[in-house]
Design a protein that fits this description.
This protein is α/β, with parallel strands linked by helices. It is built from 13 helices and 12 strands.
Length: 335
């Protein structure tokens, strides 16, 4: 890569003059020299070193995106369609705003705290953090932090972009009841965080229908696909009993549908299947999955907009944004 010294020699100016043009100090350089230097910078594709910019502006232009992988993944956390989608949206929004994204995921909180202290990031976007973890990281780093799907929120000073999760669970359950299902089971890994909110929405709609709440309405799924096949095998007893299974993630809904269909089950005539997220899996599986749509790209963009507003001093204190949800009526439940 061409050096500043070479640009200066070709332009017949000092290195200081070239640096002034690179860093936007136009008042110190004549218009003619600035145009000549900028033309050379463009011609030779000069890329300024981030370290120098950070020293000058006390800003690294780097935003850390941190995922606390609190559950087991057979591959990596990025293989989860929600995380891959939101990460893509975050990177695009940060790049458009002139920032660079540094991605870090870890299951141990101490590793996350060490990373945040070791790197000179301008701010952090944390995904699926608990409130206490968020507050500890904020105190340790003294950096602006925006959360996506903050869990177990308490009163305090935080910025979060979430979803109308409870409303999504309520909306889907009410629709399944309107479709005439006698029984519905909620299926997910653990009844915590956003899944707990979605389950609460299920229970609200169930209670409004005048039915007594059941103790066994939540089915916990195992960590690996091989183990989850045992879950699905036990669910075969639901066939032809006017039952719907409401999975709190499209990934598990489509996985279960594949298992049932491989065992000769007719979806939806013998068993109803519903999901949550409206991921590409929902659109391309057969039959088309009935699900709750969330705009993951908008969630990522909103988190970036919020963090930049905090960095620029346009937002202070606490902010909570809950993105809307929408029912998508597919063909995986009877109508």
């Amino acid at each position: 890569m061409i050096a500043v010294k070479e640009i200066a020699e070709m332009a017949g100016v000092s290195m200081t003059t070239v640096y002034n043009v690179i860093h936007g100090n136009a008042k110190k350089v004549s218009k003619a020299k600035m145009e000549k230097i900028q033309a050379l910078l463009n011609e030779y594709h000069y890329v300024p070193k981030m370290g120098l910019s950070a020293l000058k502006n006390n800003s690294s232009k780097i935003i850390g995106v941190v995922i606390h992988t609190s559950r087991y993944y057979e591959d990596t956390v990025i293989s989860d369609m929600f995380y891959s989608h939101v990460i893509g949206a975050l990177e695009e929004s940060l790049r458009t705003a002139g920032y660079y994204m540094m991605l870090y995921s870890a299951s141990e909180l101490e590793d996350i705290f060490h990373m945040a202290l070791a790197w000179n990031v301008d701010g952090l976007i944390v995904i699926t953090f608990r409130y206490q973890e968020y507050m500890k990281l904020k105190v340790l780093t003294n950096k602006p932090i925006v959360a996506i799907d903050l869990i177990d929120k308490e009163s305090g000073d935080y910025f979060n972009v979430g979803l109308q999760d409870e409303n999504g669970g309520y909306m889907m359950t009410k629709y399944l009841l309107e479709c005439g299902y006698q029984d519905i089971f909620v299926c997910s890994r653990k009844n915590v965080g956003v899944d707990h909110d979605r389950w609460n929405g299920f229970r609200k709609a169930w209670a409004e229908s005048g039915r007594a709440l059941k103790e066994n309405d939540f089915i916990s799924l195992y960590d690996t696909e091989n183990e989850r096949n045992k879950n699905y095998n036990r669910m075969l007893k639901f066939i032809n009993r006017n039952i719907a299974l409401f999975f709190l993630s499209d990934m598990f809904a489509v996985e279960a549908m594949h298992y049932f269909q491989s065992h000769g089950v007719d979806i939806p005539n013998e068993l109803g299947i519903a999901g949550f997220d409206d991921s590409p899996l929902a659109k391309y599986c057969y039959p088309r999955l009935t699900t709750v749509r969330q705009d993951i790209s908008e969630k990522g963009k909103c988190a970036v907009d919020m963090l930049i507003a905090v960095l620029e001093g346009r937002m202070e204190g606490k902010a909570e944004v809950r993105q809307p949800v929408k029912l998508v009526k597919g063909d995986s439940v009877k109508k």
